[in-house]
């Protein structure tokens, strides 16, 4: 059994607690205009005009497990594996034997997910994932469908499901002037955060650093206007009134 990745990142410090090995699974069912990892959107191996001419590779689960366990000495009490992407839930069936093996060896597992995936996929993940990092993007149903191609009902159902089974959830909110920072969306986000007020919240500004990736993949790239520090502080203050577990991060 193999899975398709774009990268294995060792000694990662921003993808969960402690020192982690982050694997980026290839394939996503959303199309967020601000995505900073466009190479993970398509599930196909793609032509790339940069380094080696291709982006994406298949790896056998045993070989991937060996890579992960080679880092075990660095994990200490908090570190472990982080599943990222792309949308890691889309390959959860293929990767389940690896997760089962890692849990037997007491490896902590985190997942970064947008939650726009079938519930039965999430029911597999919940058996192995210790902590979820969940995006909050666009919460108006028609705009969610129009802009990022997501079904908001699926997202909300999945969030309700995992929150009934674990409190190890951190929300991540991308701040994008053109899409997520309008007054209506912020109000909807605040309402959601108030409902889940015990979960951690991380907010961050999007950046234009992925422009070269888009060019190498022959994809259109749209630059985003800078979100000023004052605006970030304003959103931080609003969130803090409904959820005290908020912090500003850089990704």
What would your notes on this structure say?
The protein is of the alpha/beta class. It has a single domain, classed as Aldolase class I (TIM Barrel, Alpha-Beta Barrel). It is built from 9 helices and 11 strands. The protein has a 9-stranded mixed beta sheet. A two-stranded antiparallel ribbon has the order 3-4. Helix 1 packs across helix 3 and helix 7 runs parallel beside helix 9. It is globular, with a radius of gyration of 18 Å. The model has no long low-confidence stretch (mean pLDDT 95).
Q: Gyration radius, to the nearest Å?
A: 18 Å
Main sheet record? 9 strands, mixed
Low-confidence stretches: none
- What integer is the average pLDDT? 95
Taking the alpha carbons of the first and last residues, their distance comes to 32 Å
CATH superfamily membership? Aldolase class I
- Helical amount: 25-40%
Indicate the CATH topology: TIM Barrel
Please count the beta strands (DSSP E, at least 2 residues each). Answer: 11
- Specify the CATH class: Alpha Beta
What CATH architecture do you see? Alpha-Beta Barrel
Q: How many distinct domains?
A: 1
Structural class: alpha/beta
């Amino acid at each position: 059994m193999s899975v398709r990745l774009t990268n294995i990142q060792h000694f990662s410090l921003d993808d969960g607690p402690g020192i982690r090995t982050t694997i980026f699974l290839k394939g996503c069912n959303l199309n967020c205009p601000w995505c900073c990892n466009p190479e993970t959107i398509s599930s196909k191996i793609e032509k790339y005009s940069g380094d080696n001419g291709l982006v994406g590779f298949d790896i056998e689960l045993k070989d991937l497990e060996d890579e992960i366990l080679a880092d075990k000495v660095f994990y200490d009490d908090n570190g472990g594996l982080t599943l990222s992407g792309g949308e890691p839930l889309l390959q959860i069936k293929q990767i389940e034997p690896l997760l089962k093996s890692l849990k037997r060896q007491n490896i902590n597992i985190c997942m970064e997910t947008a939650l726009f995936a079938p519930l039965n996929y999430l029911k597999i993940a919940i058996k192995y994932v210790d902590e979820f990092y969940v995006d909050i993007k666009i919460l108006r149903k028609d705009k969610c469908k129009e802009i990022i191609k997501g079904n908001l009902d699926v997202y909300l159902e999945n969030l309700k499901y995992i929150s009934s089974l674990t409190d190890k959830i951190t929300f991540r909110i991308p701040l994008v002037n053109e899409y997520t920072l309008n007054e209506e969306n912020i109000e909807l986000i605040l309402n959601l955060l108030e409902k889940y007020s015990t979960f951690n919240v991380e907010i961050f500004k999007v950046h234009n650093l992925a422009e070269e990736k888009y060019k190498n993949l022959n994809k259109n790239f749209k630059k985003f206007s800078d979100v000023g520090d004052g605006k970030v502080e304003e959103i931080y203050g609003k969130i803090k009134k409904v959820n005290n577990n908020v912090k500003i991060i850089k990704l």
